[in-house]
Design brief:
Order of helices and strands: HHHHHHHH
Keywords: Membrane, Transmembrane, Transmembrane helix
Number of helices: 8
Number of strands: 0
Largest sheet: none
Structural class: mainly alpha
Distance between the termini: 36 Å
Radius of gyration: 20 Å
Strand content: under 5%
Helix content: over 70%
Length: 151
């Protein structure tokens, strides 16, 4: 899975570089740039995310870091060499100004939506997988509850 995530991240970085004139344009509205990011770059990163949503923290941090680079260039919220005394912009302020959720939260939402709709797919293998996921979740919850009562 790590190979897939790295491949998708490289594709997204290539797409971002190809569209750098768009994202670094100071005459284009910030909202338009955020919409372009959401439509052109984020789907590349989140491709097949319900499969790899539980990746390592370091891998997820690479993805979050790339997203912050895209947002900072879109919103022009970064320190420059000539602004020594200018305060830094926190990641929270960056996401608040962009008005979008962090990418890891977005991936969790995509995964939840996928798992919720899994049972409605008219495919025997997927139906069996959905029932397996439900039964393993119930068994896991019961095991946790049992262990908590033992303590």
């Amino acid at each position: 899975m790590h190979n897939h995530i790295d491949t998708q991240l490289k594709k997204a970085q290539t797409a971002f570089r190809a569209l750098s004139n768009l994202f670094h344009n100071k005459y284009l509205n910030h909202k338009a740039k955020i919409i372009c990011y959401l439509l052109l770059i984020r789907p590349i990163i989140t491709y097949a995310s319900p499969i790899w949503w539980n990746c390592s923290a370091s891998t997820m941090e690479k993805i979050r870091k790339f997203e912050r680079v895209c947002l900072r260039s879109s919103l022009h919220m970064y320190r420059r060499y000539d602004s020594v005394n200018k305060p830094y912009f926190s990641n929270n302020a960056l996401y608040n100004r962009a008005g979008i959720p962090r990418i890891d939260n977005h991936i969790i939402k995509l995964t939840r939506d996928y798992m919720a709709n899994l049972a409605s797919i008219n495919n025997n293998y997927m139906s069996e997988f959905a029932s397996f996921v439900r039964s393993s979740a119930i068994n896991t919850a019961a095991t946790v509850k049992k262990r908590l009562t033992e303590i």
